[in-house]
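User: Sequence in, structure out. Go.
Assistant: Echoing your sequence, followed by the structure tokens.
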Amino acid sequence: LLPRGYVVGDSTGTQLANIHIPSYVYVTEDLEDPVFYSEDSVLGKGYKLAHNPQAMVVLGMDILNDTVSVVDPMKEGIQEYSYSRMEEVYDLMGRQSVYIASVPIVGEGE
């Protein structure tokens, strides 16, 4: 449940370079190659299911220096990974991502 004035946005299909910051992205543990075992369909969209999925929160990226800063729940603190490797795995996993955004509440503050 989100506090009033916030919504969840679905940016699935968006290139990594164009996602909202911060965003929750679906990749693999330690950015290893995905090991797929099945495909599932939700609302007509095909999703590959992997044995080694991992979700991380992207906090920022520096494409020129090939780095991405993330919160990896399997590790302590903020981690830096290779942007190009993150992009490769993110693409292989179907470019699945979501974000939380604030929205104006109509009628308040007028």
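User: And one key feature?
Assistant: The helical segments are 83-92.
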